[in-house]
Amino acid sequence: MAKKRVSRRKFLVRGALGTVGVLALGTYVFRGSIRRVIAKKLNSADAPYMGDTSTPLIWFEITDDNQIILYSPKVEMGQGTFTGLAQLAAEELEVDVSQIKVVHAPSATGNMDGFATGGSTSISALWVPLRELAATMREMLLIKAAEKWKVDRDKIRFSEGSFYLGENTMTFAEVTNGVSEWEIPDTPELKPTSEMKWVGKPVPRVDLKDKVFGAPIFGMDASLPNMLFGSVVRPSKIGSTFKNATFSEAEKMPGVIKIVLEKDFVGVVAKSYQEAENAKLAIEVEWETGEDWNTSAIKSMLTVGKGKPFTIQKEGDVEDVFESTEVIVSEYWSPIGAHAQLEPNGALAHVEEDKATIYMSTQVVKITRDEIADRLGKDKNQVNIVPTFLGGGFGRRLHTPNGIQAALMSKAVGRPVKCFFSRKEEFQNDTFRPPTHHVLKARLNDIGAIEAFEHNVSSGDVAFGSPMVPSIAEPILGADLGAWRGGMVQYGAIPNYQAVSWRIKLPFATSWWRSLGLLANTFAIESFMDELAVKTGKDPAQFRLEHIQKDDRGDRLSSVIKAVVEKSNYKDAVVKERAMGFAASTDASTPCAQVVEVSITDEEIKVHKVFCAMDPGLVVNPDQVRAQCEGAIIMGMSAALFEKMEVEKGELTPTIYGPYQMALMKHAPKEIDITLLQGSETPGAVGEPPLGPIGAAIANAVFRLTGKRLREMPLQHYLNS
Amino acid sequence: MEISFQINGENRSVQVEDENTPLLWVVRDVLDLKGTKFGCGKAACGACTLHVDGEAVRSCSYAVKFAKGKNIVTIEGLGTPERPHPVQQAWVEEIVPQCGYCQPGFMMATAALLSKNDHPTDEEIDANIINVCRCATYYRMRKAIHRAAELTRETNLQSTENS
Ligand code: FES
Ligand code: FES
């Protein structure tokens, strides 16, 4: 066994693990129908961990007071990942969760996820690797303890971070004392789920205290001695390219240290935030702009039939059925959505001669580092990204050019510079949730069963065009995996079905938004399923059940549907001016079904109760899974009922909360009832799947109340138009 | 110019170039109290909520000159892990925060509400707690507000009994 030289404070653990690339790059042989196989895999499998666990990286550190620091390659943006990871590590280290402190791994530790934190994959991806690493570390410590005590390791007992031999005790920290070389054993066998102490427990969030008592943990809170404030002039028109700037006035303004002119932006560095903002107003920028876009031009671009089609799913032959018989056709639309995360994007950069340190909220630590190193002309190892807690992610921090801007301004003045977006800049320079257009077609047979079903979705890019999906992957994948997320037909007992994704390149940046295409795709498919159920006169939940195939995936979907029907006592009727609405979706491998209870008073849609049944597989922390369901349901409700960006005279608008209407306390349902099923031995996706059904469920309830089928989100907006 | 006020129980004087600077930036960047957050700068989200003489104020839109001689409380002064304010106690019990960024603002708004009304109805909560939470933790917040109200009533009762 190879001996590794590691210092005590930098406790290196080498995991003997192989990883697979989720995008299966590196070869062009995957073409045509093979792509569908990949698409299918991506739709069902949980993404593996994309970081490197094969070389020594810093995962754990043991402090003098016997605390175990876990360096997380995944960032914490509210989804509760840190807590789940602490539970997994505690399980194999045989310590109390409170003995583990989870921190963000700075890129200098080498412990980075090459992909991102996102897509509801953090816990599922680290489920095995992290426990293996923790178990390996426990073994390494045990071997050393045995050496120190000169006994056989079988004689030693351990618990709560200490080893015991008769009357003798040695803490983990004491074991590491004076050790400079560690032997790395084979990965030990992992504890079976049935013997787990922490997994499955509603452990309170490990970051709870920091967040309740106002600790300075976010990117926005970072500060350094001698720090200055930067502000970058950002365009308000879409499709703007920076040409040049004049700033002789701005240079003379109070507090201004320097105007920084780069090839692609101009920024001001000043002593205070306010002074930087004031001076920015005096800078005149010449932009090269394109067309004056407006919402209707965007909407007409985005039409099924335009752009490049790609069949992502195909069973039987829908065309054959549609040619010879009567076909039911419906169209649905969803608007441009903003991330509107509360913490604006920003970064604190300190660029020095031979190194650069950047504190920021990012979902893509490695990409952020590589891009900054590249632009600064520094070696990657000279750039250290210190990730902070994120004041919301939702996909907004997958593109991080703001890190580069802060770094260039810091370099220009030789001091630390903090620079962040204003709210208006956030709204106008977001990487939006793309608008979508859906065409659904179906044929019902004589006994009210679906004979053929087709979903067409036209969407702006989600994954394509992002730094995470290199352009060479696009021809291999064929269709944008983000845009079609949730867009496949989940009713496998239908004899003929297909899903087709149409790619449109929009004139502004679009990208990941919590759950990717799931919200819009499910809104369209599940509203249409409801239309079909109504046509056949069948109960909508029963109608779905009749079209689900008999296999593991199908059974899990059927189970959540049955569970939510039972819990909600679902009735396809209006009772006391309230109606129930039903919908179901499958995201990654997690099925979720919801029933909402809705009324309309004074033309306002009011959601009173939400019942949600979800099967994310093994549940690591039931309290946090519930929290994710509650949040995703209300966030999905917010998007489905109210949210909408418009394009007017080339500008995205509105640019402030309020006019960009979102769900507030008064809109939140008073009752949310969650049922968790565990139809798999391993944990699956949690943070996004419960966002799927909510839009369709509300629209289906509204149909029962009004007889009006709302085919476009946001629903409140279209209720009376 | 120099402006003096009390903040979290301490008398402080700050030097400001511009007396119209929002209080938020003085609190965050001059006094280094980072618990009060910047979300929008336009009084539209409530992330920057703190107390001025017991009233909830959106400090991003409140010039520092108005704070002269006043008593300011921020999340750091509301309570500590050892001595939590009832609102913080309830927030911990209900495990409210997700990303956490909006939470200080919500807790400050709730504390101000409860100081005037220790038994708010759902309707009163809806009308008074109008901050924005993108993680949409409203469901637990409502439970926590009711719980905090309960804890506040208990404390109020004890102090009347003791006096
Ligand atoms: S930052 Fe003050 S209300 Fe938004
Ligand atoms: S907890 Fe994230 S914005 Fe409220």
Description:
The complex is a heterodimer of chains A (721) and B (163). Chain A has 721 residues and is of the alpha+beta class. Chain A folds into 3 domains: 5-37 and 44-212, Aldehyde oxidase/xanthine dehydrogenase, molybdopterin binding domain (Aldehyde Oxidoreductase, domain 4); 219-289 and 345-420, Aldehyde Oxidoreductase, domain 4 (2-Layer Sandwich), CATH 3.30.365.10; 296-337 and 431-719, Aldehyde oxidase/xanthine dehydrogenase, molybdopterin binding domain (Aldehyde Oxidoreductase, domain 4, 2-Layer Sandwich). Helix content of chain A is 28%, strand content 24%. Chain A has a 7-stranded mixed sheet with strand order 13-14-11-21-18-19-20, sandwiched between helices. In chain A, helix 2 (81-93) runs parallel beside helix 3, helix 10 (365-376) packs across helix 11 (401-413) and helix 17 crosses helix 18. The longest helix of chain A is centred in the N-terminal third of the chain and has 28 residues, at 122-149. The radius of gyration of chain A is 27 Å and the shape is globular. Residues 1-48 of chain A have low confidence and may be disordered. Chain B has 163 residues and is α+β, with helices and mostly antiparallel strands. Chain B has 2 domains: 2-78, Ubiquitin-like (UB roll); 86-161, Orthogonal Bundle (DNA polymerase, domain 1). Helix content of chain B is 41%, strand content 14%. Chain B has 6 helices and 5 strands, in the order ββαβββααααα. Chain B has helices at 23-30, 75-78, 86-94, 103-116, 122-128, 138-162, and strands at residues 2-7, 10-15, 49-52, 55-58, 71-73. A 5-stranded mixed sheet of chain B has the order 2-1-5-3-4, with helices on both faces. In chain B, a hairpin with a 2-residue loop joins strand 3 and strand 4 (55-58). The mean pLDDT of chain B is 97. Residues 38-41, 43-48, 58, 60 of chain B line the site of one FE2/S2 (inorganic) cluster (FES). Chain B: Keywords: 2Fe-2S, Iron, Iron-sulfur, Metal-binding, Oxidoreductase. Chain B: GO terms for molecular function: 2 iron, 2 sulfur cluster binding; metal ion binding; oxidoreductase activity. Chain B: This is (2Fe-2S)-binding protein. Chain B: InterPro entries: 2Fe-2S-bd, 2Fe-2S-bd_dom_sf, 2Fe-2S_ferredoxin-like_sf, 2Fe-2S_ferredoxin-type, 2Fe2S_fd_BS, Beta-grasp_dom_sf, Diverse_Oxidoreductases. Chain B: Residues 1-78 form the 2Fe-2S ferredoxin-type domain. Chain A: Residues 213-291 form the Aldehyde oxidase/xanthine dehydrogenase a/b hammerhead domain.
